[in-house]
Structures are given as C-alpha cells and as structure tokens.
Amino acid sequence: MNSSTGKPARSDAPLPQPLPQVDVIPEVLDPASTASTPALAPVGKRYIWLMVLAQFGVFVAFITPLAISLAIRLNELAPGREEYLGYITGAGAFAVMLTSPFLGVASDRTRTRLGRRRPFMIGGMILGIVSLVVMATAPSVLVLGTGWVLAQLGWGTVLSNLLISTADRLPESQRGKVAGLTGFATQVAPVVGVVLAGSFASNNLLLFLVPGAVGVLLTSLFVLLVHEKDSRGNTFDEKLNLGRLLRKYLYNPKQHPDFSWNWLGRFFFYFGLTLNTTFTAFFFASRLGVSVTEVAGILAILSMAGILATTAGAIGGGFLSDKLRRRRAFVCASGLIFGAGAIIMALSSDMPMLVAGSLLGSLGIGMFSAVDQALLLDVLPERETDAGRFMGIISFATSIPQSIAPLIAPIFLAVGVTAGGEKNYLLLYVIAAACTVLGGLVVLRIRSVR
Questions:
Q1: How many whole angstroms separate alpha carbon 335 and alpha carbon 327?
Q2: How far, in Å, CA of 198 to CA of 72, rounded?
Q3: Please, which residues have CB within 8 angstroms of residue 56's CB and are 6 or more apart in sequence?
Q4: Which candidate among 73, 128, 138, 289 keeps its CA 20 to 30 Å from the CA of 179?
Q5: What is the CATH code for 26-227+255-445?
Q6: How many contiguous H segments (helices) and E segments (strands) does the chain have?
Q7: Crossing angle for the helix pair 70-77 and 118-137, to the nearest 10 degrees
Q8: 124-to-218, 220, 379, 418, 434 alpha-carbon distances in Å
Q9: Distance (Å, rounded) from C-alpha 9 to C-alpha 353?
C-alpha cells in the first residue's frame, strides 16, 4: 500500500529531500488518479455548516476520552500504570484498521431509501453511546479497553461516512474551504470536550455522556437535514464474495502514485502526532509536578489558548490553499511547525514554554488537518464508485500509527528512566517531532497537485 512507485510519486526514503515546485500536467503524470469525472456542483451553505457541526460533535464525543477521560478512569482503576493507556488506544486503532475498508465497501454498496452514508451514521451513533456507557462504568482495565474499541468502531464509522460524503459532493474549488472549517472544528472540539470533562471529572457517567450527547445532537442534525438520494436502484458490475472483499483492502500503488504518497505522508505525521498526544496528561503532570486529575483543569486552560492558533492553521491554510491552488507547501509547512512545537515542549520545564510549544503544535495540526484533507480529495481514486473503499484505505494511514505508536511509546519512555521513576518524555517528543517533519516533507513527491 505504501511501497515505492515510479517518478510521479512521493519518495519513501528515510528522509526525502524537498523537490522543486514544478508545474505539471496531471493527466500525464498520474492519469489513474485524475481521470475525468463528471464535474460536481458547488454545495450550499447549509451542507457546509451542518457538516462542520457534525464533525465537531463527533470529535467532542470521541476525542474527549482520548484527551483526558480515559486517563482519569485509568488512574482510578490502575494507578501508576500509564503504559496501559497505550495498550488501550492501540487496541482500538487496530480494530479500526481491520474494519475500515470493509465498512467503506459496505457503505459504497448500501442500497436504502436513506442513501448509502446515513444508515452507517445512525448505527455508528448508537454504538458510540453504548461505548461511552461501558467506559464510564468499567470495573476493570479490560472492560475500559473494550469500551474504547467500541468507541473507535462506532464514532469512527460516523466520522468516516461524513468524510465520504465530502468526497461524494465537494468540487475541487470548495475542498480547501470546507476542510479548513471542519479541520478547525475538529481541533477545537477536544478543547470543548476537555472543558466539559473538567467540569464533570468527579462523576464518571457525566464525564463520558455529556460530550457524547453533544455528538449525538449535532450528528443527528446532519442526518435529518442533509438529503441523500435513494440508493435502492444502484447496480454493481460484480458481486462481492469473501475473496473480492479481501482484495479490496489492497490496491496497486503504481496505478495511483499520488494517493500513495498522500497515504505515506499522513502515516508519518499521525505517527508523530500520536506519540505526542497519547501521554499528554501524564507528560504535563510530570513537568508541572501535579496529579493527573489536576491536569484536567490545566489542559482545559491551555487548550483554550490554542484556539486562535488552530483557527489560523486550519481556516487560513484551507482558504489560502483554495485561493492559491496549492496544497503541498502548506502540508509541508504544517509538519515543520508541529515539529518545532514538539521540540519546544520536550525542552520545557515551566508553563510559558509549554504554552509556546502547544500553540505551535495547534497551528501545525490545524493546517495539516485542513490542507491534507483537501489534498486527499484531490487525489482520491475511483471517486464515483469506490470512494468509501479508498477512504477506508487512507484510514490505515491514521489507524496504523494510532495502533503502533502507543505500543512503541513505552519503550522510548523507559530509556534512561531515573531512580525516581521519571519517564523519558524528552526522547518521546523529539521522535514525535522528527516523524511529523518527515510527514510534511513526503508530500513534496505528489505531482498531480501543486
């Protein structure tokens, strides 16, 4: 999936050198990725804002546990065993990795009066609420981990079908704008979630269900108010069997090189991002000399400070990439910016340095989340028939890092552990920075998009 291909592609060498910006003819360099398809009509404001609100709601419900709620519950169930958080989040990402392409193919082939995407959003919301109850009431670490796996499957299905909807409907001229707005929303959502969680930190049920209620409400608005055409009349050239289904988990990178480089760049960026964010609560507790429970309030305040930086990165990057019709430079810059923020945090020992590093990280995440999403839609293969399948395949680029990075992170944390048990967060954050910088550089290999 991410093996090296021919010239019109990103290099997967350990540290590719930036290539000069050269205007090219997309059809010559990557015909499979840019084959002519019917022009999509611009979407209206109602679709855009309901999409923004729905993704915001999903992230409030879904990322709040990852940001703080899981750490609080884990500290109750297994004090001092923070490495369990890596195992829990890794198991959830692994479950998504196994199921995403299958669910994407199923979405492409669903034939209902409600259309192809909405039934999966509804089912995902139901499973998502069940998962939050399981995590809130879990009597053991094993049950807590099971709840997180269910959350990944439920809310992940909702989010993936929202993203597939943008692939179905957005013309090129609106992709950066919409990705900027949704990127901003999905980065601000965890801030809102952490604030909500900090308000209910002493009540486990409310800690999980209040953010979940926000997700259900805002996603339901999209499902109810955004019409999707009846898909019961859809026909397909081939019937699915187990062999064909398994083959849809793979594709030939030589046919779609630019999609492959987008996949690889996203993989490196999210590997670094996952290393950086999985242990945030424990990292701040260690550097500031406070308990993990007390960190919830500190993170809420610090996260609020990052809203302006995230706004500048997501909306500014998304809108400018549409206006200038350039994606690669913005994605590359986002990796460098986030890497600088991670280095500053790694070297910090007080609040001002942590704030400075966090703000840079927020700027980089916002820019990457917006512009790389627009870039993905630009190079997405077989949009008319297999959008769900390829969106499922691209999800490997986030689910594999989210699965592997938390399992590897304890190894880095254990290097040179002090007699007092102080973890090596410096090494962890430096490696995270290197990965995000590499993810930004890899995008320069794409040739069909400037």
A1: 13
A2: 10
A3: 182, 185, 186, 188, 189, 218
A4: 128
A5: 1.20.1250.20
A6: 18, 0
A7: 30
A8: 14, 11, 27, 44, 35
A9: 38
Instruction: Say how far apart CA 422 and CA 373 lie, in whole Å.
Output: 38
Of 288, 427, 426, whose CA–CA distance to 349 is shortest?
A: 288
Distance in angstroms (rounded) separating the CA atoms of residues 208 and 206: 5
pLDDT in tens, 108-162: 888 899 988 999 999 999 999 999 999 999 999 999 999 999 999 999 999 999 9
The answer to whether 163 and 262 have CB atoms below 8 angstroms apart is no
**Strand positions, DSSP E, 371-431:** none
Which pair of tokens denotes residue 403?
């699965």
pLDDT band, very low/low/confident/very high, at 367 (cuts 50, 70, 90): very high
Cβ–Cβ under 8 Å, residues 136 and 208: yes
> Could you report the per-residue pLDDT of 195-234, keeping only the tens digit for each?
887 777 778 888 888 889 999 999 999 999 999 888 888 7
Q: Which of 115, 129, 100 is nearest to 223 (CA)?
A: 115
Q: Compute how many other C-beta atoms are within 10 angstroms of the C-beta atom of residue 286.
A: 17
Q: Residue 68: which residues within 8 A CB-CB, separation 6 or more?
A: 193, 194, 197, 198, 281, 295, 296, 299
Tokens of 8: 């019109």
Integer Cα distance of 255 and 270 in angstroms:
25
Q: Name the burial class of residue 139, with classes exposed (0-12), middle (13-18) and buried (19+) by CB atoms within 10 angstroms of its CB.
A: exposed
CB-based contact 132:151 (threshold 8 Å): yes
Host H or E run for residue 391: helix 383-414
Closest CA to 207 of 288, 272, 147, 122: 147
CA gap 70, 88 in Å, rounded:
9
Tokens 């859809």 correspond to what residue?
234
Distance between CA 207 and CA 73 in Å, rounded? 10
CB 204 within 8 A of CB 75: no
Residue closest to 10 by CA, chosen among 333, 382, 389, 328: 328
- Distance between CA 146 and CA 184 in Å, rounded? 30
Enumerate the domain spans of the chain.
26-227+255-445
